[in-house]
Amino acid sequence: MSRTLPEQREYPVAPGARVAVGARRIHVLPTPISSFTTVAADAAAAQRLRESPLLSTLAGRMQTRVATQLLPGASAPLGMPVIATGPGSTEAAEWLLQHGAAQLLCLPPAAALPTRVVIHSFDEDSRHATLAVAASLLRHLPAEAVYLGIHPGATAETDRADFMRQLLDTRSLALAAHGLDMRTELRFGDPDTELRQELSSAESSMLVLGTSDPGRIHRDWLASLIEGPQPRPVMIVRATGGDEAAGR
Q1: pLDDT for residue 26
Q2: Helix (H) or strand (E) holding 92
Q3: Taking the model in full, what pTM does it have?
Q4: So what CATH class is 36-246?
Q5: What CA–CA distances, in Å, run from 94 to 48, 131, 164, 185, 215?
Q6: Mean pLDDT for each consecutive 10-residue tract of the chain (248 residues)?
Q7: Annotated domain spans of the chain
Q8: If you compute the radius of gyration of the chain from its CA atoms, what whole number of angstroms results?
Q9: How far apart are the first and last CA of the chain?
Q10: Cα separation, 29 vs 92, whole angstroms
Q11: Mind giving me the DSSP string for 46-68?
Protein backbone atom coordinates (compact mmCIF):
# COMPACT_ATOMS: atom_id res chain seq x y z
CA MET A 1 0.00 0.00 0.00
CA SER A 2 1.25 3.52 -0.80
CA ARG A 3 0.11 6.99 0.33
CA THR A 4 0.64 10.38 -1.27
CA LEU A 5 2.67 13.09 0.51
CA PRO A 6 -0.48 15.12 1.39
CA GLU A 7 -2.01 11.99 2.92
CA GLN A 8 1.14 11.35 4.92
CA ARG A 9 1.10 14.93 6.27
CA GLU A 10 -2.62 14.86 7.13
CA TYR A 11 -2.57 11.40 8.70
CA PRO A 12 0.93 10.68 10.05
CA VAL A 13 1.56 7.09 11.06
CA ALA A 14 4.30 5.90 13.40
CA PRO A 15 5.44 2.35 14.24
CA GLY A 16 3.03 0.83 16.74
CA ALA A 17 0.08 3.00 15.70
CA ARG A 18 -3.28 1.31 15.24
CA VAL A 19 -4.68 1.83 11.74
CA ALA A 20 -7.60 0.61 9.65
CA VAL A 21 -6.92 -0.50 6.09
CA GLY A 22 -9.55 -0.58 3.36
CA ALA A 23 -9.52 -1.65 -0.27
CA ARG A 24 -11.06 0.31 -3.12
CA ARG A 25 -10.90 -2.50 -5.63
CA ILE A 26 -10.51 -6.25 -5.17
CA HIS A 27 -10.08 -8.92 -7.83
CA VAL A 28 -10.79 -12.40 -6.49
CA LEU A 29 -10.01 -15.55 -8.43
CA PRO A 30 -12.22 -18.58 -7.74
CA THR A 31 -10.68 -21.36 -5.63
CA PRO A 32 -12.98 -24.37 -6.04
CA ILE A 33 -10.37 -26.71 -4.55
CA SER A 34 -10.78 -26.17 -0.81
CA SER A 35 -9.03 -29.23 0.62
CA PHE A 36 -8.00 -32.82 -0.10
CA THR A 37 -8.87 -36.14 1.57
CA THR A 38 -6.83 -39.24 0.85
CA VAL A 39 -9.08 -42.29 0.61
CA ALA A 40 -7.18 -45.51 1.20
CA ALA A 41 -7.41 -48.99 2.71
CA ASP A 42 -4.92 -48.26 5.50
CA ALA A 43 -2.87 -45.47 7.05
CA ALA A 44 0.32 -46.47 5.21
CA ALA A 45 -1.36 -46.20 1.81
CA ALA A 46 -2.86 -42.85 2.78
CA GLN A 47 0.58 -41.60 3.84
CA ARG A 48 2.08 -42.59 0.48
CA LEU A 49 -0.56 -40.45 -1.23
CA ARG A 50 0.10 -37.52 1.12
CA GLU A 51 3.82 -37.69 0.31
CA SER A 52 3.36 -38.00 -3.47
CA PRO A 53 5.03 -35.17 -5.44
CA LEU A 54 1.77 -33.81 -6.87
CA LEU A 55 -0.39 -33.87 -3.74
CA SER A 56 2.32 -32.63 -1.38
CA THR A 57 3.14 -29.78 -3.78
CA LEU A 58 -0.49 -28.74 -4.20
CA ALA A 59 -1.25 -28.91 -0.47
CA GLY A 60 1.86 -26.88 0.36
CA ARG A 61 1.36 -24.18 -2.26
CA MET A 62 -2.39 -23.92 -1.63
CA GLN A 63 -1.78 -23.94 2.12
CA THR A 64 -4.66 -26.35 2.53
CA ARG A 65 -5.13 -29.40 4.69
CA VAL A 66 -5.02 -33.06 3.65
CA ALA A 67 -7.34 -35.29 5.66
CA THR A 68 -7.60 -39.08 5.58
CA GLN A 69 -10.58 -41.41 5.22
CA LEU A 70 -10.01 -45.13 5.54
CA LEU A 71 -12.15 -47.56 3.58
CA PRO A 72 -14.93 -48.49 3.68
CA GLY A 73 -16.74 -45.17 3.88
CA ALA A 74 -20.44 -44.41 3.96
CA SER A 75 -20.15 -41.49 1.54
CA ALA A 76 -17.62 -39.36 -0.31
CA PRO A 77 -15.56 -37.21 2.09
CA LEU A 78 -15.55 -33.44 2.28
CA GLY A 79 -12.97 -31.77 0.08
CA MET A 80 -11.50 -33.44 -2.99
CA PRO A 81 -11.07 -37.22 -2.54
CA VAL A 82 -7.68 -38.54 -3.66
CA ILE A 83 -7.27 -42.23 -4.49
CA ALA A 84 -4.24 -44.18 -5.68
CA THR A 85 -4.24 -45.53 -9.21
CA GLY A 86 -3.86 -49.26 -9.71
CA PRO A 87 -6.07 -52.34 -9.45
CA GLY A 88 -9.55 -51.48 -8.21
CA SER A 89 -9.16 -47.72 -8.63
CA THR A 90 -11.77 -47.52 -11.41
CA GLU A 91 -14.40 -49.06 -9.18
CA ALA A 92 -13.40 -46.75 -6.31
CA ALA A 93 -13.62 -43.70 -8.59
CA GLU A 94 -17.09 -44.67 -9.78
CA TRP A 95 -18.29 -45.22 -6.19
CA LEU A 96 -17.01 -41.83 -5.01
CA LEU A 97 -18.61 -40.00 -7.95
CA GLN A 98 -21.90 -41.79 -7.32
CA HIS A 99 -21.80 -40.95 -3.60
CA GLY A 100 -21.36 -37.20 -3.67
CA ALA A 101 -17.84 -36.35 -4.85
CA ALA A 102 -17.92 -33.18 -6.98
CA GLN A 103 -14.20 -33.50 -7.72
CA LEU A 104 -11.89 -36.50 -7.66
CA LEU A 105 -8.14 -36.99 -8.11
CA CYS A 106 -6.84 -40.39 -9.22
CA LEU A 107 -3.14 -40.24 -8.48
CA PRO A 108 -0.11 -42.50 -9.12
CA PRO A 109 1.74 -41.97 -5.80
CA ALA A 110 5.19 -41.95 -7.43
CA ALA A 111 4.27 -39.80 -10.45
CA ALA A 112 6.37 -36.70 -11.12
CA LEU A 113 4.78 -33.28 -11.33
CA PRO A 114 2.99 -32.95 -14.69
CA THR A 115 4.50 -30.74 -17.36
CA ARG A 116 1.27 -30.70 -19.39
CA VAL A 117 -2.34 -30.59 -18.21
CA VAL A 118 -4.91 -31.67 -20.80
CA ILE A 119 -8.42 -30.27 -20.19
CA HIS A 120 -11.67 -31.48 -21.73
CA SER A 121 -15.35 -31.21 -20.84
CA PHE A 122 -17.76 -33.76 -22.24
CA ASP A 123 -20.64 -31.27 -22.33
CA GLU A 124 -21.34 -27.55 -22.16
CA ASP A 125 -22.92 -27.82 -18.70
CA SER A 126 -19.60 -28.90 -17.21
CA ARG A 127 -17.37 -26.42 -19.05
CA HIS A 128 -17.33 -23.58 -16.51
CA ALA A 129 -16.74 -25.82 -13.48
CA THR A 130 -14.00 -27.71 -15.33
CA LEU A 131 -12.17 -24.51 -16.26
CA ALA A 132 -12.46 -23.21 -12.68
CA VAL A 133 -10.92 -26.37 -11.20
CA ALA A 134 -8.20 -26.50 -13.88
CA ALA A 135 -7.33 -22.85 -13.24
CA SER A 136 -7.09 -23.45 -9.50
CA LEU A 137 -4.78 -26.40 -10.16
CA LEU A 138 -2.58 -24.58 -12.66
CA ARG A 139 -2.03 -21.56 -10.43
CA HIS A 140 0.18 -23.87 -8.39
CA LEU A 141 1.84 -25.97 -11.10
CA PRO A 142 4.35 -24.80 -13.75
CA ALA A 143 2.65 -26.83 -16.48
CA GLU A 144 1.37 -26.14 -19.98
CA ALA A 145 -2.44 -26.09 -20.26
CA VAL A 146 -4.10 -27.53 -23.36
CA TYR A 147 -7.87 -27.50 -23.82
CA LEU A 148 -9.23 -29.97 -26.37
CA GLY A 149 -12.56 -29.36 -28.07
CA ILE A 150 -13.56 -32.73 -29.53
CA HIS A 151 -16.48 -33.33 -31.90
CA PRO A 152 -17.60 -36.32 -34.00
CA GLY A 153 -15.49 -37.10 -37.03
CA ALA A 154 -18.58 -36.95 -39.25
CA THR A 155 -19.21 -33.29 -38.36
CA ALA A 156 -20.34 -31.34 -41.43
CA GLU A 157 -17.86 -28.83 -42.82
CA THR A 158 -20.41 -26.04 -42.36
CA ASP A 159 -20.52 -26.70 -38.61
CA ARG A 160 -16.77 -26.73 -38.05
CA ALA A 161 -16.44 -22.95 -38.13
CA ASP A 162 -19.05 -22.71 -35.35
CA PHE A 163 -17.10 -25.17 -33.24
CA MET A 164 -13.95 -23.11 -33.76
CA ARG A 165 -15.75 -19.98 -32.54
CA GLN A 166 -17.00 -21.91 -29.49
CA LEU A 167 -13.43 -22.98 -28.76
CA LEU A 168 -12.20 -19.38 -28.95
CA ASP A 169 -15.04 -18.35 -26.62
CA THR A 170 -13.92 -21.04 -24.17
CA ARG A 171 -10.37 -19.68 -24.22
CA SER A 172 -11.66 -16.15 -23.59
CA LEU A 173 -13.84 -17.39 -20.72
CA ALA A 174 -10.90 -19.20 -19.13
CA LEU A 175 -8.74 -16.08 -19.24
CA ALA A 176 -11.39 -13.54 -18.22
CA ALA A 177 -13.18 -15.50 -15.50
CA HIS A 178 -10.35 -17.64 -14.14
CA GLY A 179 -7.05 -16.08 -15.16
CA LEU A 180 -6.19 -19.27 -17.05
CA ASP A 181 -4.08 -18.84 -20.19
CA MET A 182 -4.30 -22.05 -22.17
CA ARG A 183 -3.67 -23.38 -25.64
CA THR A 184 -6.76 -24.66 -27.46
CA GLU A 185 -7.07 -27.34 -30.11
CA LEU A 186 -10.06 -28.49 -32.14
CA ARG A 187 -10.25 -32.22 -32.87
CA PHE A 188 -12.74 -34.36 -34.76
CA GLY A 189 -13.04 -38.01 -33.84
CA ASP A 190 -13.62 -40.25 -30.85
CA PRO A 191 -13.00 -38.36 -27.53
CA ASP A 192 -11.43 -41.40 -25.85
CA THR A 193 -8.95 -41.83 -28.69
CA GLU A 194 -8.12 -38.13 -29.04
CA LEU A 195 -7.54 -37.68 -25.31
CA ARG A 196 -5.38 -40.79 -25.10
CA GLN A 197 -3.22 -39.57 -28.02
CA GLU A 198 -2.79 -36.13 -26.45
CA LEU A 199 -1.82 -37.58 -23.07
CA SER A 200 0.72 -39.91 -24.69
CA SER A 201 2.42 -36.99 -26.46
CA ALA A 202 4.02 -35.86 -23.18
CA GLU A 203 5.60 -38.26 -20.69
CA SER A 204 4.46 -36.27 -17.64
CA SER A 205 0.90 -35.38 -18.53
CA MET A 206 -2.30 -35.09 -16.51
CA LEU A 207 -5.97 -35.02 -17.48
CA VAL A 208 -8.67 -32.72 -16.07
CA LEU A 209 -11.98 -34.13 -17.28
CA GLY A 210 -15.37 -32.50 -16.77
CA THR A 211 -18.81 -34.04 -17.13
CA SER A 212 -22.33 -33.48 -15.85
CA ASP A 213 -22.94 -37.23 -16.10
CA PRO A 214 -20.16 -39.53 -14.81
CA GLY A 215 -21.84 -42.36 -16.71
CA ARG A 216 -20.41 -40.85 -19.90
CA ILE A 217 -16.91 -41.84 -18.80
CA HIS A 218 -16.32 -45.28 -20.28
CA ARG A 219 -15.16 -47.69 -17.59
CA ASP A 220 -12.65 -49.55 -19.78
CA TRP A 221 -11.15 -46.29 -21.03
CA LEU A 222 -10.77 -44.88 -17.52
CA ALA A 223 -9.24 -48.16 -16.38
CA SER A 224 -6.68 -47.92 -19.19
CA LEU A 225 -5.56 -44.54 -17.80
CA ILE A 226 -5.48 -45.28 -14.08
CA GLU A 227 -4.92 -49.04 -13.95
CA GLY A 228 -2.68 -49.54 -16.99
CA PRO A 229 1.11 -49.99 -17.04
CA GLN A 230 1.69 -46.20 -17.21
CA PRO A 231 -1.08 -44.66 -15.10
CA ARG A 232 -1.75 -40.94 -15.45
CA PRO A 233 -3.03 -38.48 -12.86
CA VAL A 234 -6.70 -37.90 -13.69
CA MET A 235 -8.83 -35.20 -12.05
CA ILE A 236 -12.56 -35.60 -12.65
CA VAL A 237 -14.97 -32.70 -12.21
CA ARG A 238 -18.62 -33.69 -11.81
CA ALA A 239 -20.67 -30.59 -12.65
CA THR A 240 -24.31 -29.66 -13.12
CA GLY A 241 -26.15 -27.21 -15.37
CA GLY A 242 -26.27 -24.83 -12.43
CA ASP A 243 -22.46 -24.62 -12.36
CA GLU A 244 -22.37 -23.39 -15.95
CA ALA A 245 -25.24 -20.97 -15.45
CA ALA A 246 -23.51 -19.44 -12.46
CA GLY A 247 -20.50 -18.61 -14.59
CA ARG A 248 -22.37 -16.71 -17.28
Answers
A1: 57
A2: helix 89-98
A3: 0.83
A4: alpha beta
A5: 22, 22, 32, 29, 9
A6: 69 83 61 89 96 96 92 86 96 94 96 96 93 95 95 91 94 93 95 94 94 93 94 92 43
A7: 36-246
A8: 21
A9: 33
A10: 31
A11: HHHHHTSHHHHHHHHHHT--EEE
